[in-house]
Design a protein that fits this description.
50% helix, 274 residues, Lyase 2-enoyl-coa Hydratase, Chain  A, domain 2, 2 domains, 12 helices, lipid metabolism, 4-stranded mixed β-sheet, 2-enoyl-CoA Hydratase, Chain A, domain 1, single chain, globular, alpha/beta
Length: 274
C-alpha cells in the first residue's frame, strides 16, 4: 500500500478549534457524517497532543460543528473500501486505521485534563466509541447511539473496549449484538451519558461543567484522572494499595496543603499546580 502523507491544507478546517479561557473546544467539522477518517483522527490527536503541552488548558470539549445532525458516524467506510483494491486487500490500511483509532482513544484517556463529549445527534460505531472514551458525556434529548457493525458483518470490536468499560456487560452486549440504536434516556440508563438536556441548553451546561473542573487544582485533577483509570483495572486489594500511595503523594503536594489551609481558613484557595 502507498502511504499518503496528509498535507496541512488537506486537514485544514476538519476540526474547529476555540480557546475559551482554560477550556479548549474541538468541533469536528466534516459534514454530513463527521466520519473518523485518517485525516480526522490525525487532526484530533494532534490537537489533543498540543493540549497536553499547554499548561493553561484545564479541560477539553469535543463536539460537532453541525449540531442536531451526526455527532460522528465512525470510520469512513468509503475510505476503507477503497483500499480493498490494494495488493494486500487493504490489510495494511485497515491496520493503520485501527491503530490510529486506538491511539486517539488512549490519548483522550491519558490526557492529564478531563475531556467532555458534547453530543447532539447520532454517535455510531467509532463515534460512539469516542463518546465512551471521554471522561464525561452530555447529550440532547434527541441524541442517539449505536454500535451497528454487526449489521454489516463487521463486529464493533474496538468500540467494544471503550463501551464495555463504561456500560454494564449485558447492556454493552445488547448494543454490540443487535446493532440497534438506543435513545438518550437508554444511553443514560446504560451509563454511557452523564446528563440529558434540550438542545438550547447543551452548550451552556457542558461549558458550566468544564468551568467547574477548570477551577480545581490542575495537579489534583491530573493525579485523580490517572489514578481513576489505573485502579479500575486492578483487583480490589491492589487498587486500595495503589490509591493509598497516590493519596499520600497527593497530600504532600503544595496544592493540597493550600487547599486544606484555605478550607480551614474559609477562603478561596490559590492553586499553583505544584
Amino acid at each position: 500500500m502507498n502511504v499518503v502523507e496528509l498535507k496541512p491544507e488537506a486537514t485544514a478546517g476538519l476540526v474547529k478549534v476555540e480557546k475559551l479561557g482554560p477550556v479548549l473546544r474541538l468541533e469536528m467539522n466534516n459534514p454530513p457524517a463527521n466520519v473518523l477518517s485518517i485525516a480526522m483522527m490525525e487532526t484530533l490527536k494532534a490537537e489533543l497532543d498540543a493540549a497536553r503541552e499547554d499548561n493553561s488548558i484545564r479541560a477539553v470539549i469535543i463536539a460537532s460543528a453541525t449540531p442536531g445532525q451526526l455527532f460522528s458516524a465512525g470510520h469512513d467506510l468509503k475510505e476503507l473500501t477503497l483500499h480493498r483494491a490494494d495488493e494486500d486487500r487493504g490489510r495494511a490500511f485497515f491496520a493503520r486505521t485501527m491503530k490510529l483509532c486506538s491511539e486517539l482513544m488512549q490519548t483522550i484517556v491519558h490526557l492529564p485534563v478531563p475531556v467532555l463529549a458534547e453530543v447532539d445527534g447520532l454517535a455510531t460505531a467509532a463515534g460512539c466509541q469516542l463518546v465512551a472514551s471521554c471522561d464525561l458525556a452530555f447529550c440532547t434529548d434527541t441524541s442517539t447511539f449505536c454500535t451497528p457493525g454487526v449489521n454489516i458483518g463487521l463486529f464493533c470490536s474496538t468500540p467494544m473496549v471503550a463501551l464495555s468499560r463504561n456500560v454494564q456487560r449485558k447492556q454493552a452486549m445488547e448494543m454490540l449484538l443487535t446493532g440497534e440504536t438506543i435513545d438518550a434516556s437508554t444511553a443514560r440508563e446504560f451509563g454511557l451519558i452523564n446528563r440529558i438536556m434540550p438542545r438550547q441548553y447543551l452548550g451552556q451546561v457542558v461549558m458550566k461543567y468544564a468551568d467547574v473542573i477548570a477551577s480545581k487544582s490542575p495537579l489534583t485533577v491530573k493525579i485523580g484522572k490517572e489514578a481513576f483509570y489505573r485502579q479500575a483495572e486492578m483487583p480490589l486489594d491492589d487498587a486500595y494499595e495503589y490509591t493509598a500511595s497516590v493519596m499520600v503523594e497527593n497530600m504532600l503536594a503544595r496544592d493540597a496543603e493550600e487547599g486544606m489551609n484555605a478550607f480551614i481558613a474559609k477562603r478561596t484557595p490559590e492553586w499553583t499546580g505544584e
